[in-house]
Amino acid sequence: MRSGAEQPGAGYAGSDVQRWFPEPAKRASRTPFERDRARVVHSSALRRLGAKTQVLGPGSDDFVRTRLTHSLEVAQVGRELGKSLGCDPDVVDTACLSHDLGHPPFGHNGENALDLVAMSIGGFEGNAQTLRILTRLEPKTFTPDGVPCGLNLTRASLDAATKYPWFSGEGPVGSDGLVTAKFGVYHEDAEVFRWLREGAPAGVRCLEAQVMDLADDISYSVHDVEDAIVLGRVDPGMLTTAAAHEKVVTQVRDWYDPDISDDELGDALDRLVALPYWVTAHDGSRRALAALKDMTSQLIGRFCDAAAAATRARYGEGRLVRYDASIVVPTEILAEIAVLKGIAAAYVMAPREDEPVYHRQRVVLAELVEVLAERAEAALEPMFLADWREAADDAARLRVVIDQVASLTDLSAYAWHARLCGPRDPA
Questions:
Q1: Are 339 and 371 found together in one domain?
Q2: Which of 361, 391, 356 is closest to 376 using CA atoms?
Q3: Considering only CA atoms, which of 400, 88, 355, 352 is closest in space to residue 233?
Q4: Cα–Cα distance between 370 and 398 in angstroms, integer?
Q5: Is 192 part of a structural domain of the chain?
Q6: Among candidate residues 143, 169, 196, the one where a domain is terminated
Q7: For the chain, what percent of residues have pLDDT higher than 90?
Q8: Is pLDDT at 156 greater than 70 in this prediction?
Q9: Which are the contacts of 16, defined by CB distance < 8 A and separation ≥ 6?
Q10: Looking at the structure, do residues 73 and 219 belong to the same domain, yes or no?
Q11: What is the pLDDT of residue 341?
């Protein structure tokens, strides 16, 4: 499929604004990339992120971030960083707003649960599910013969939203000699994936996707620590102790294992807590909240400015888009971001791993998949039921059931489970 006469922005080629299914521009006053962003903003998939877990469940506290608020923050960080390098800000914005669309209920816990029940059909991966939503599941565009095209975004925007441009088992090999478990496309979606990757180097992310990925890392590393401090899970003043130092570095190594030495991670923690804007105490007052917000803003600026400066030092001052460059992040900054992730993991996420609610969430999703597979005709929503009826075999039908369950929010997953499997206490 090829599209018509939409004009690209500066630095982008005509192929970058092609759409999987050709459609005419509706308003000459908008660029094709502005249209992409608008489609994501108005999508039902984005709205559902407002009731999906980021770190803590949406109903656990009025302050905590959801997947939606996180995505909005990533978009703001990514848009500014990308613009400083010459990327079209709407391409980056679209990628950032889209990056978590494929996440199921209950955050990464839910992702792991669905991966287990989908092992026979290639597993479940939130990033691959995102591509599936953008190109197939989100109701917006159809071909004349009734084939869904999802939001039918431009090639540049779809490529920018593809954080892991490879199939399962085909990703890069890490320092441990193992192929990364992350992937960005299911084999069922190979055709549109190969289309959007036309002309791209195999396994290489475009610059806009790299900006999105870094903006995601920066946002959740900083904001998860902010949430943890406000909720009393982390005492920022205690992070200078030897015990905290060891706990955080060990957690980074256990969960993330970056290609950074323990000494470099320790030095990064020392640098962070020595910053003049690092908060050392938090009492919940308005002044304390303002100081904490200043810290998060300063950290985001520190990380973005360092990456932009290092990238410019390597590639010069011209406009950088698509495959003109790869973003450069100094090792010291990577270590600081990793340490912030380690703080949130050590004091918030890891302690929750063994809580009964986490086990309960996995059971809810597994049982939902089982009952929906058995009672699809009576239980699936109409659009998923149509997909199920058109599926060619049992594997394709199971993928449709997974699509349905992944689309649910935290609260609707519990409600569906109570209705279909019998009432249980979600706590």
A1: no
A2: 391
A3: 352
A4: 9
A5: yes
A6: 196
A7: 78
A8: yes
A9: 8, 154, 155, 156, 322
A10: no
A11: 94
The verdict on 184 and 43 lying in the same domain is yes
Distance CA 192, CA 211 (A): 23
- For residues 173 and 26, membership in a common domain is answered with yes
State the Cα–Cα distance between residues 89 and 208, nearest whole angstrom: 9
Distance CA 327, CA 205 (A): 10
Angle between helix 382-390 and helix 394-407 axes, rounded to 10 deg = 160
Cβ neighbours of residue 168 under 8 Å, at least 6 residues apart? 122, 123, 125, 128, 183, 186
Q: For 270-274, which contacts have Cβ atoms below 8 Å and span 24 or more sequence positions?
A: 271/332, 271/336, 272/239, 272/299, 272/336, 272/339, 272/340, 273/236, 273/239, 273/240
Residue type at position 37: R
Map residue 90 onto helix, strand or coil.
helix
Q: Which residue has the higher pLDDT, 28 or 343?
A: 343
**Cβ burial, residue 396 (10 Å; 0-12/13-18/19+):** middle
Q: Is 169 helix (H, G, I), strand (E, B) or coil?
A: coil
The span from the CA of 193 to the CA of 395, in Å, is: 20
Tell me the residue range of the domain where 188 lies. Answer: 14-196
User: Is 302 inside a domain boundary?
Assistant: yes
Residue type for position 53: T
Together in a domain, 227 and 180 = no
Q: Is residue 419 assigned to a domain? A: no
Report helix angle 67-85 to 207-230, nearest 10. 130
Residue type, 282: H
What digits encode the pLDDT tens for the residues 344-369? 999 987 766 667 888 899 999 999 99
Cα–Cα distance, 418 to 287 (Å, whole number) = 44
Is 425 a domain residue?
A: no
- Distance, in Å, from the CA atom of 164 to the CA atom of 180, rounded to the nearest integer, reads 10
Structure tokens at 235: 């005492």
235 and 375 together in one domain: no
Q: Cβ atoms within 10 A of the Cβ of 139, count?
A: 12
The per-residue pLDDT of the chain, averaged, comes to 91
Are 143 and 212 in a shared domain? no
Q: In this predicted model, which residue has the larger pLDDT, 422 or 319?
A: 319
The count of structural domains within the chain is 3
Please give the backbone phi and psi of residue 148, each rounded to the nearest 5 degrees, phi first: -70, 140
pLDDT tens-digit readout, 160-217: 999 999 999 998 887 777 888 899 999 999 999 999 999 999 999 999 999 999 999 9
